[in-house]
Amino acid sequence: MSKAQTSKSAQHPRSQGSQPTANRNVPHRVRPFEVTQKLPRLQRLAFGKALAPSRERYDQLVDALWQGDPPMDCLLDWMMAEDSRNRKAMYELALKEGINKVENAPTELKTFFAMVDQEPVWLDRELLEQGVSVVQSLGEFGLYIMRDQALMVGYLLSGFNHALVATGALNKGASQRTGETLKWWMDCTEHGGMERFGEGFINTLHVRWVHGMVRRHLQSRKEWDSNEWGIPANQTDMIATYLAFGSVLLLGVRLGGVIITPRESRAVMHLWKYAGWLMGVEEQWLVDSELEGFRLLRHTQATQSRPDWTSKELGQALSKEPFERVYPWKNKFPRLHKLYLKYEYHSHLSLTRLFLSREQMNALGLPDWVLPWYPAMTTPMRVARELYTRLGPVDRKKLERKGRKQQRYRMQAVFGERAHGIIKPDKNHPAHL
């Protein structure tokens, strides 16, 4: 199959779902099935053979590289057919104020919002809000794990990177990109944020629209090779993304000395299960447990190519992001501020080193001489704090408020003097309208 033929067929992922892998082009990014069965001894002992994908699961995830988000893709077919700016404005009005606010709303718009406005039968609002409480109580360490484990380690999976690079991520700057992601994360983890008109709900559907536009338009660009990567913003990559906010976060904070109870684990996973559903991840890929999520995340790695130049470019850019932060006291103590940013740069590298080998650090363009001194220094203090707060007469709500204050402070520093907001595609972005 030629590149042109592949790109043409990939533009309509809704029609691809039932085709078996054997009868379809397999993107070059996919690792051979036999390779995915070779697990490190420690992983095999800790998680069992199920950590390696079955042949059926492997084929499903390879197929999902050609599958998009049917509801959003259908909506975009209508939106882009004619008068796209006006139709986009109708979408924004329905999103922010409700479909009833759209005069003579078209069927396509009604159909989409009938789906997202109807809560899934499995949604437990009380459990979701508990998940929000857990995430807020993690404070700045939760942000460190998301940045230094989930995001940085994710750059090793180069099959995922190319859509990000094609959107101009390298030109935009790591600070802006990190800030936009952080703002969305904060909105989703605000109490009431995932209610119908909460900022988390609204911004998740905005990100879903951006993903749909990227999927629709990026394939027509010469830099996109469908033979190599499948379609942009595909189901497999969306699965890996939503699981990073749940299973990866929980694993990371546990390794850092934080106690997570089974109920708290389920609550955090439930929060991101709903976020994944709103993002367009299909029901079959939504999981309830931390272990189930970690196994599925490991299975998605079967479709990911080895680190390449994008891994190094993105990794180096993110590593230097702390130097762009601006804290409120910068002008009062400029030298101290500069020294503190150096400390943050090295502490982030140190935490990343806890999760990566020397070879992997090299693949990301990071110094391999770094030692995990930061987690070694701070983990005992977190363990002591956790034991005290769990066993002592500590107000958990007070701990949650303190943690949230830390998270807001860090987000403010990442944005600096820029306005706090999520992605707004510019003229060079595939989602620009």
Shape: globular
Largest sheet: none
Strand-pairing-aware structural class: mainly alpha
Number of separate strands: 0
Total count of helical runs of at least 4 residues:
22
Radius of gyration: 22 Å
Helix content: 55-70%
Q: What average pLDDT do the residues reach?
A: 89
Oligomer: single chain
Pfam families: MPAB_Lcp_cat
Organism: Alcanivorax sediminis
Protein name: DUF2236 domain-containing protein
GO molecular function, one term: oxidoreductase activity
Question: Describe it for me?
Answer:
The chain has helices at residues 3-10, 33-36, 41-47, 55-63, 70-81, 84-97, 107-117, 125-137, 139-154, 158-166, 169-172, 174-188, 199-217, 226-229, 235-255, 262-279, 290-300, 309-319, 334-355, 358-363, 373-391, 396-415. With 433 residues, the protein is mostly helical. It has one domain (70-415).
Distinctive features:
single chain; 433 residues; mainly alpha; 0% strand
Summarize the structure.
This protein is an all-alpha fold and 433 residues long.
Please describe the topology of this protein:
Elements: H1 3-10, H2 33-36, H3 41-47, H4 55-63, H5 70-81, H6 84-97, H7 107-117, H8 125-137, H9 139-154, H10 158-166, H11 169-172, H12 174-188, H13 199-217, H14 226-229, H15 235-255, H16 262-279, H17 290-300, H18 309-319, H19 334-355, H20 358-363, H21 373-391, H22 396-415
